[in-house]
Amino acid sequence: MFNDRDRKPAVPRLDGIDILRGLSILAVILLHIWIRFAFFHVKMGAHWPRCVQHLAFFNGGNGVTTFFAVSGFLITLTSLRRFGWLDAVRPLAFYRIRFARIVPLLVLLLVVLSALHLMGVDGYVINERHFTLPRALFAALTFHLNWLEASRNAYLPACWTVLWSLSIEEMFYLFFPIVSLAFFRGGRAGRWVWIALALGLFAVGPWARVVWAKNDLQAENSYLAGMASIALGCLTAYVVDRLSRRALRTAWLHVVEIAGWAGILLIAVWPTWHHVLRPLGKSGTDDSLLALSVSLVMAAVTLRRKRGSRWSAPLRWFGRHSYELYLSHEFVVIAGVDLYARLYPNHASRGSVAIFVIGMLLMTAPLAAMLTRWFTEPANRALRGAPLPTELPAQSSCESEMQPS
Questions:
Q1: Which of 85, 99, 87 is nearest to 2 (CA)?
Q2: How distant is the alpha carbon of residue 351 from its chain centre?
Q3: Are 73 and 237 in contact (CB under 8 A)?
Q4: Whole-angstrom Cα distance, residue 70 to residue 17?
Q5: Tell me: the pLDDT tens digits for 249-275?
Q6: Nearest Cα to 6, choosing from 74, 73, 91, 68?
Q7: Are the C-beta atoms of residues 194 and 180 closer than 8 Å to each other?
Q8: Does the first or last residue of the chain, that is N or C, have fewer Cβ atoms within 10 Å of its Cβ?
Q9: Which of 137-146, 177-186, 324-333 is least confident?
């Protein structure tokens, strides 16, 4: 059973991390819009400088890497604050909290996708040359959809494919409380083993992305590649928890945050084929640099207790609703681009495309808000045994990370 501590947020809202998540979910949505338009031979930003095009539309993968690091950070920091220390983690409570947050919306999504497939709705029908509906459902519910797609070198429909990152995260968290208990109860030596294991997972990320991958899907969907960033986020939370007991100079935290944002900007602006980042891209260390940069930002804004401004409020809203946005945005993208193709079969002006892109971005918000208010938040609270407030906040605790991601 849950106690009162399990029902309440373990740490307050972290505005700086919501900004990271907001930027990441926008990057993911823009990439998927670009991909969907490309199916109709509309390549957005084709006449822009390539670095500008990359910044606007091709950072979706970097957004997922960011979500992995954020997820590891928030889950570890929440566990440290909720349970007191990682040798006091209660696995049953941990799993129930994860179940309450993740599974209701996942099950709803799978029910809707199954119905759309059976009705033969265009854009939602599974290609049975590669997959069947029962096999896809089994993979999604047992968190190996990433492996299924990679092993067959084929994609499921878009609304299914987004679950690849959720598979990596939840498989990691299946072992997280058990591993933490095993090593932290071993005293100082055990803690060092836990740290070494996190560093080891981070170190093998480039190998998983470049050396061991036989195709692009294996490089993108690899468990070890994704877990590398999650592990670094976990380690960052552990370090932040230790440092939070000390007096730190604000000036140094400013330097750390600036360094982190500089690394993020470098990855976001220059693609890996550019001469600036070509060595990082070929070695698979570009994701490692991004995860490290994100971790620097997370550490600095958390230790500074940095609050967001009114100007960042919309971005933070997207960050707080990132899970709902991640699982639902493809419905808006598919409908929006299909409508464009019907209205403009010969392609309209670039201005018309821009209006549709902005419209789709805006329309993802009310859908996510409705899902949060009327489904995920009530289900989360009911499964955790918490009373429903008069006004339902959007994920009031920092454990509401998106399961790109």
A1: 99
A2: 31
A3: yes
A4: 7
A5: 889 999 999 999 999 999 999 877 677
A6: 91
A7: yes
A8: N
A9: 177-186
Q: Tens of pLDDT along 160-213?
A: 999 999 999 999 999 999 999 999 988 889 999 999 999 999 999 999 998 888
pLDDT 10s digits, 341-385 = 998 887 767 778 999 999 999 999 999 999 999 999 999 999 987
What is d(CA 355, CA 344) in angstroms, rounded to the nearest whole number?
Answer: 13
Tokens at 124, concatenated? 């939602």
Contact yes or no for 35/44 (Cβ under 8 A): no
Q: Which two three-digit tokens encode residue 6? A: 């399990």
Measured distance CA(297)–CA(256) in Å, rounded: 7
What number of residues does the chain have? 405
| pLDDT score at 270 | 83
| pLDDT tens-digit series, residues 378-387 | 999 999 875 5
Quote the CA–CA distance of 382 and 387 in Å, as a whole number.
7
Please compute, for residue 123, the number of CA atoms within 13 A of its CA located in the half-sphere on the CB side: 15
d(CA 15, CA 138): 36
Nearest residue to 225 (alpha-carbon basis) of 173, 183, 178, 172: 172
| In the chain, domain spans | 4-384
Is the separation of the CB atoms in 204 and 214 below 8 Å? Answer: no
User: Crossing angle of helices 223-243/187-206, nearest 10°?
Assistant: 140
Closest CA to 389 of 6, 21, 7, 5: 7
Give the pLDDT score at 137. Answer: 98
| 33 φ/ψ angles, rounded to the nearest 5 degrees | -65, -45
CA distances from 280 to 48, 96, 164, 290, 346 (A): 24, 39, 24, 11, 40
